[in-house]
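Review form for a predicted model. The reviewer records the input and the model, then writes brief findings.
Reviewer: anonymous (R2)
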Amino acid sequence: PVNREVARIMLEAFGCEVVEVCDGQQALNAVAEQAFDLVLMDVRMPVMDGLEATRRIRSMPDAGASLSIVAMTADAMPEDVTRCLAAGMNAHMAKPINQAGLLTVVNRALTGDLPPARVTLEAEAA
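Model under review:
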């Protein structure tokens, strides 16, 4: 919750409209109900983790394939980054976040400069 609060404050200072959810299922529901420019997704969440939520978002027929999803997680080892990208996330941002890094991610998402998502067969089978 503290990292989410810090991110919200930073994003609002950038002029972003922020929608907060508490778990992966709520994230999935929010994406199904409205359009977003960017999703910052934690990996470790109750109900449904961020990897599964990302895989399900990517399978949605409308915005699922094109939505920018960035991991914002304390899981920062190389294998963690690989798992996030394999699940369909566009990029990875390690916690604790900083204002410059967050602004860079937001700018890259809004300008279409994030790498394309790539879901691997291993991630789909997980």
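Findings: The two ends are 27 Å apart (CA to CA).
Further findings: Confidence is low (pLDDT under 50) at residues 121-126.
Recommendation: see findings above.
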